[in-house]
Amino acid sequence: MSGPDDRTPAAGHEPGRGDGQATSAQAAIDSAVFDLDGTLWDTCPTCAIAWNGVLARRGIRFREITEHDVRRVVGKPHDQCIREVFVGLPESDVRVLIEETLVEDNRAVAELGGILYPDVESGLRQLAARFPLFIVSNCQAGYIETFLGWTGLGSCFRDFECWGNTGRAKAANLSALIERNGLLRPVLVGDTAGDQSAARECGVPFVYVDYGFGACADVDRRFSSFGALVAWLLRAGANDGTGIERS
Predict the structure, then answer these.
(1) So what's the pLDDT on residue 243?
(2) Domain check: are 57 and 172 in the same one?
(3) I need a labelling partner for 43 at 20 to 30 A (CA). Which of 25, 147, 186, 213 fits?
(4) Domain with 176 in it: what CATH number?
(5) How far apart are CA 144 and CA 34, in angstroms?
(6) Which of 76, 93, 112 is the last residue of a domain?
(7) How far is CA 117 from the centre of its chain?
(8) Helix (H) or strand (E) segment spanning residue 157
(9) 239 — phi, psi (to 5°)?
(10) Mean pLDDT over all residues of the chain?
(11) How confident is the model over 84-92, as a mean pLDDT?
């Protein structure tokens, strides 16, 4: 993994802070970047099945993995997830699990899918008709494509980036999405402190959905349902004076 480097905030944008008064630049959101797991869907039960399958196939002795084990580490790069769950195994077994669960996760998710949070499908289609949408994730290569294929939501997203493609941290991948797509006033929607940190590092507002896997404080906006998030994004994208302010 590469370390943090200098990044340029999205041009013409500053996160909303202070007295909560919205500026026109803050109101006119021109794009939304979404985290995936814990924000749009939950595949923890499916990934638990995949990890147990690799253990059985390889004859690696370990306790049965549950969806709660997976949920505890979701949002981190895949190799870190495996190392944190399979503590105590020999390094050779850990390396096998890292390599093979990368593939097995995608295979299992392509077959079994995940659980879309309420209003995600309809909400994304509404948002995509208003402004461009993107995904940034710490997932392995091929996982976002699997999500798009299984859900049929590929037409909603203009671009995406992930740890598996670049080997880089979320902030670096978010910065790359912003730069190559010429985004001026994006927001990042996510559910973990890692998402919040990436947004801060890139100088864009962080919109927190608290139904996901993480806990965040001092956020720019907070929503407890995707439907409420969509309603706010549609207003903010219409430049009606709805600004980013701390909740």
Answers:
(1) 53
(2) no
(3) 186
(4) 3.40.50.1000
(5) 11
(6) 112
(7) 14
(8) strand 157-162
(9) 60, 50
(10) 88
(11) 97
Q: Mean pLDDT throughout 78-99?
A: 96
- CATH code (residue 74): 1.10.150
Of 112, 143, 160, the residue that ends a domain is 112
- Which residue shows structure tokens 């480097």? 5
pTM: 0.84
What's the confidence (pLDDT) of residue 10? Answer: 43
Are the beta carbons of 53 and 108 closer than 8 angstroms? yes
Judge whether residue 7 has pLDDT over 50.
Answer: no
Long-range (24+ apart) CB contacts under 8 A made by 150-154 are: 150/109, 150/110, 150/113, 150/114, 151/41, 151/113, 151/116, 151/121, 153/121, 153/124, 153/125
**Residues paired with residue 190 on neighbouring β-strands, in sequence order:** 208
Name the token pair of 232.
């706010």
Overall domain count for the chain = 2
Do 167 and 49 lie in one domain? The reply is: no
CA-CA distance, 15 to 25, in Å (whole number)? 10
Domain containing 50: what range?
44-112
Confidence of residue 242 (pLDDT cuts 50, 70, 90): low
Look up residue 67 and give its two tokens. Answer: 């969806």
Q: Residue with structure tokens 């077994």?
A: 93
Query: Does 130 share its domain with 182?
Result: yes
Do residues 26 and 244 lie in contact, with contact meaning Cβ atoms separated by under 8 Å? Answer: yes
Same domain, 229 and 122: yes
Residue 129 to residue 122: CA distance in whole angstroms: 11
